[in-house]
Amino acid sequence: MTQAAFKQNSHLNPELREAGANLQKLLGRWLNTNRDTRGIAECTIARDGDEVKVSIVGVGDDGPIAWPTVAAHSMANLEEEAGQRTGALMATFDFEFMRAETHIRINKGVLVIVLFATFLDGSGRSNYLNREFFYAQG
Amino acid sequence: MQFAQISDRVEATARDVDSSSLVGAWINSNLDTNSIARVKITNADGGLQLEVFAMGPDGLIDWGPSKAQVFAGGPASHAAAGFTCRYDFGFAEARLQAMIMKGLLVLAQFHLFKDDSGRSDYFLREYFALSHDRF
């Protein structure tokens, strides 16, 4: 049998040939642990056929701002830390003025969203990253 | 000014983000890693360049140089807090997303296979310390 191509040992991890990403614990509605956030208020992760969809609500001036729902890319999790194996998601939100690339994972029962924002509008704002934490509703 | 979250509504002056905090040789804190062992970050051509060395069965594998995009800690900040970078190996793509946290570089890796090997795309995250010669 020909060995698969690799660029690091983990590319050859036999677990990658077993079941795909376990995403069950990610599904549901998640609320920001920081009630005073000026960023993401909540996130809903749901299955839609073979896809996993992510909906985010940002905090706005006059109320919530619904971001466009996007299909996420599911990833198996090979993190060694605490033997956690719940999958992770990559989701990109395209606004005309900004692109937000996120990765979403669970850490000790808390949903973590890491966001990398790139501004496309020449407003002078710096591209930036941010990390927020969410708890499962209900 | 358009925004998708109110934290993005800031007065800002267009200025380069200072990426000096990212420059250097970052070493994985996990001696037994099966992944990236070290990352060399340099300033090159007005941007940031990475060189990644990962653990292979017979020693380190040099992924070669790649340009990185720098990110600040907020839309009004001009101090680097992390970067993103992509490597295309042909059979797979590696996307790196890194952030500085408590002096460590937290590096998230996303590996997307493009071959027919049947491997799942996967994620992992490891911690890197900036090597220095102070003590």
- End-to-end Cα distance of chain A, whole Å, is 49 Å
Catalogue the unreliable spans of chain A: none
Global outline of chain A: globular
What string gives the helices and strands of chain B in order?
Answer: EEEEEEEE
Order of helices and strands of chain A: EEEEEEEEE
Main structural class of chain A: mainly beta
Strand content of chain B: over 45%
Mean of residue pLDDT values of chain B: 95
Q: Can you summarize the main beta sheet of chain A?
A: 8 strands, antiparallel, barrel
The order of strands across the largest sheet of chain B is 1-2-3-4-5-6-7-8
The rounded distance between the terminal residues' Cα atoms of chain B is 48 Å
How many extended strands of chain A?
9
Oligomer: heterodimer
Helix amount of chain A, in percent? under 10%
Most extensive protein-chain contact, per-chain counts: A-B, 62 and 61 residues
Major β-sheet profile of chain B: 8 strands, antiparallel, barrel
Question: How would you describe the overall organization of this protein?
Answer:
The complex is a heterodimer of chains A (about 140) and B (about 140). Chain A is an all-beta fold and about 140 residues long. Chain A contains no helices and nine strands. Chain A has an eight-stranded antiparallel barrel. Chain A is globular, with a radius of gyration of 17 Å. By secondary structure, chain B is mostly beta strands. Chain B is about 0% helix and about 55% strand. Chain B contains no helices and eight strands. Chain B has strands at about 25-30, 35-45, 45-55, 60-70, 80-90, 90-100, 105-115, 120-130. Strand 5 of chain A pairs parallel with strand 8 (about 120-130) of chain B, so a sheet runs across the interface.
